[in-house]
Amino acid sequence: MKNVTDSFVSLDYWPFAGSFGFNTDILATNPINLTVVLGVLIFFGKGVLSDLLDNRKQRILNTIRNSEELCGGAIEQLEKARARLRKVEMEADEFRINGYSEIEREKLNLMNSTYKTLEQLENYKNETIQFEQQSAINEVRQQVFQQALEGALGTLTSCLNNELHLRTISANIGMFGTMKEIID
């Protein structure tokens, strides 16, 4: 063992380098360097790299989960909105149909009330005409009666003398007496 230690400690065995420089022999140095670097990276960086990849994987999975939840919520809201839209469309159709039927009903009611009003006005007009005719007839009757009465009085006055006048009064008094007896 002493020989092995002496060989590392002994400087005679190691040649001195004349200068510091690059070894340009790619085949000799590059695979060894790459192997050493990759070995060190894998040995020391494996934990860090796996942690980074695990964190990234968890973030991606969380993002996917959140996206799926948001997508599910959006689909649910879309279905609710579609259901509300269908409901509103049905209500709008119902209002439209009811509105048209209400308009037709109001139109018929207005027409009926207008016909009734016109009928009432026609009746009032006919009643007014009959009243005016009756008033005119009564006025003409009164005038005819007045003229007939004046003519009769004129005839009676000219034809009636005192004796005839007294007899007429006596007959009328007798009629009143008979009527009084019947009533009593």
Automatic annotation (TrEMBL):
<keyword id="KW-0813">Transport</keyword>
<keyword id="KW-0138">CF(0)</keyword>
<protein>
    <recommendedName>
        <fullName>ATP synthase subunit b, chloroplastic</fullName>
    </recommendedName>
</protein>
<dbReference type="GO" id="GO:0009535">
    <property type="term" value="C:chloroplast thylakoid membrane"/>
</dbReference>
<keyword id="KW-0812">Transmembrane</keyword>
<dbReference type="GO" id="GO:0045259">
    <property type="term" value="C:proton-transporting ATP synthase complex"/>
</dbReference>
<keyword id="KW-0375">Hydrogen ion transport</keyword>
<keyword id="KW-0793">Thylakoid</keyword>
<dbReference type="Pfam" id="PF00430">
    <property type="entry name" value="ATP-synt_B"/>
</dbReference>
<keyword id="KW-0175">Coiled coil</keyword>
<dbReference type="GO" id="GO:0046933">
    <property type="term" value="F:proton-transporting ATP synthase activity, rotational mechanism"/>
</dbReference>
<comment type="similarity">
    <text>Belongs to the ATPase B chain family.</text>
</comment>
<keyword id="KW-1133">Transmembrane helix</keyword>
<keyword id="KW-0934">Plastid</keyword>
<comment type="function">
    <text>Component of the F(0) channel, it forms part of the peripheral stalk, linking F(1) to F(0).</text>
</comment>
<keyword id="KW-0406">Ion transport</keyword>
<feature type="coiled-coil region">
    <location>
        <begin position="71"/>
        <end position="98"/>
    </location>
</feature>
<comment type="subunit">
    <text>F-type ATPases have 2 components, F(1) - the catalytic core - and F(0) - the membrane proton channel. F(1) has five subunits: alpha(3), beta(3), gamma(1), delta(1), epsilon(1). F(0) has four main subunits: a(1), b(1), b'(1) and c(10-14). The alpha and beta chains form an alternating ring which encloses part of the gamma chain. F(1) is attached to F(0) by a central stalk formed by the gamma and epsilon chains, while a peripheral stalk is formed by the delta, b and b' chains.</text>
</comment>
<feature type="transmembrane region" description="Helical">
    <location>
        <begin position="32"/>
        <end position="49"/>
    </location>
</feature>
<dbReference type="InterPro" id="IPR002146">
    <property type="entry name" value="ATP_synth_b/b'su_bac/chlpt"/>
</dbReference>
<keyword id="KW-0066">ATP synthesis</keyword>
<comment type="function">
    <text>F(1)F(0) ATP synthase produces ATP from ADP in the presence of a proton or sodium gradient. F-type ATPases consist of two structural domains, F(1) containing the extramembraneous catalytic core and F(0) containing the membrane proton channel, linked together by a central stalk and a peripheral stalk. During catalysis, ATP synthesis in the catalytic domain of F(1) is coupled via a rotary mechanism of the central stalk subunits to proton translocation.</text>
</comment>
<keyword id="KW-0472">Membrane</keyword>
<keyword id="KW-0150">Chloroplast</keyword>
